[in-house]
């Protein structure tokens, strides 16, 4: 089991931000975490990363039960996490190769001399993520899409069993988004692939590899299960509260709003 949440709730400043969440993430599954702005996605990720603890309920991540042991540091080393806040913390004068290498030490800059084995792994990951051609370029000179792929390679350096991608395609144009998604698909096809949780509020980013989806609404699990059942016209019309249509084409969903006929 990768993660298990049982009746988990989270209270902040007197408000319930997450309520009664039940969620099981099993090894071999890849999940979409889908929710609108303010639905509690970031708060849920903070729980998974042990940056916050449930106010009520029980949870375990990678076999570590929250509350039993002080697990935060031990847990975070085993989770690859790519978010926009990480994006801002990277030393911009480091080149792409150095940024990836730093992932082996869970550090932001590079303070240790990497072994040949670590250098080889970094080079392989740059290749897998399609970043090899700009390995020597300074991070600050890379486009947003190139940066995201470098950060994913960095997150994979420690060989994490769980990779969390928090809205990785935000701000990317169509081609950059597709290049990023293709890289993610390539990682997932490897024999030692981590379980991936991909957070998004864009239906179009859902790749066939994401077999499971959790729909989060107003801090509660609206529904969760097989992606094909979650991302359907009926389910999403109910979720959004307006009539929408989902069209699956080439194993990818497209969302549009159904215009009501005017009288
Ligand atoms: N420390 C806090 N105190 C009070 N309210 C909070 C706190 N942190 C988050 N919230 C509220 O909880 C709700 C969920 O926030 P969260 O950031 O988890 O949502 P999100 O789904 O990640 O949103 P977005 O997609 O916009 O980033 C929001 O209404 C937010 O204002």
Automatic annotation (TrEMBL):
<protein>
    <submittedName>
        <fullName>Iron complex transport system ATP-binding protein</fullName>
    </submittedName>
</protein>
<dbReference type="Pfam" id="PF00005">
    <property type="entry name" value="ABC_tran"/>
</dbReference>
<dbReference type="InterPro" id="IPR003593">
    <property type="entry name" value="AAA+_ATPase"/>
</dbReference>
<dbReference type="InterPro" id="IPR027417">
    <property type="entry name" value="P-loop_NTPase"/>
</dbReference>
<feature type="domain" description="ABC transporter">
    <location>
        <begin position="3"/>
        <end position="243"/>
    </location>
</feature>
<keyword id="KW-0547">Nucleotide-binding</keyword>
<dbReference type="GO" id="GO:0016887">
    <property type="term" value="F:ATP hydrolysis activity"/>
</dbReference>
<dbReference type="InterPro" id="IPR003439">
    <property type="entry name" value="ABC_transporter-like_ATP-bd"/>
</dbReference>
<dbReference type="InterPro" id="IPR017871">
    <property type="entry name" value="ABC_transporter-like_CS"/>
</dbReference>
<dbReference type="InterPro" id="IPR050095">
    <property type="entry name" value="ECF_ABC_transporter_ATP-bd"/>
</dbReference>
<keyword id="KW-0067">ATP-binding</keyword>
<keyword id="KW-0813">Transport</keyword>
<dbReference type="GO" id="GO:0043190">
    <property type="term" value="C:ATP-binding cassette (ABC) transporter complex"/>
</dbReference>
<comment type="similarity">
    <text>Belongs to the ABC transporter superfamily.</text>
</comment>
<dbReference type="GO" id="GO:0042626">
    <property type="term" value="F:ATPase-coupled transmembrane transporter activity"/>
</dbReference>
<dbReference type="GO" id="GO:0005524">
    <property type="term" value="F:ATP binding"/>
</dbReference>
């Amino acid at each position: 089991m990768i993660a298990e949440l049982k009746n988990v709730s989270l209270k902040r400043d007197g408000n319930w931000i997450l309520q009664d969440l039940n969620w099981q993430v099993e090894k071999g599954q890849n999940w979409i975490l889908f929710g609108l702005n303010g639905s509690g996605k970031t708060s849920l990720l903070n729980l998974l990363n042990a940056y916050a603890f449930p106010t009520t309920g029980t949870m375990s991540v990678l076999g570590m039960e929250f509350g039993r042991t002080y697990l935060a540091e031990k847990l975070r080393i085993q989770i690859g996490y790519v978010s926009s806040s990480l994006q801002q913390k990277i030393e911009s004068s480091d080149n792409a190769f150095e940024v990836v290498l730093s992932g082996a030490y869970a550090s932001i800059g590079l303070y240790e001399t990497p072994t040949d084995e670590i250098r080889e792994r970094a080079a392989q990951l740059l290749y897998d993520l399609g970043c090899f051609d700009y390995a020597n370029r300074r991070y600050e000179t890379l486009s947003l899409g190139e940066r995201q792929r470098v950060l994913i390679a960095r997150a994979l350096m420690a060989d994490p069993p769980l990779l969390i991608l928090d809205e990785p395609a935000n701000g990317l144009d169509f081609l950059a988004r597709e290049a990023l998604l293709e890289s993610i698909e390539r990682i997932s096809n490897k024999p030692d692939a981590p379980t991936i949780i991909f957070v998004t509020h864009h239906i179009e980013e859902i790749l066939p590899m994401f077999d499971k989806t959790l729909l989060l609404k107003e801090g509660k699990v609206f529904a969760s299960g097989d992606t094909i059942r979650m991302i359907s016209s009926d389910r999403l019309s109910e979720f959004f509260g307006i009539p929408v249509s989902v069209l699956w084409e080439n194993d990818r969903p497209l969302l549009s709003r159904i215009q009501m006929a005017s009288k």
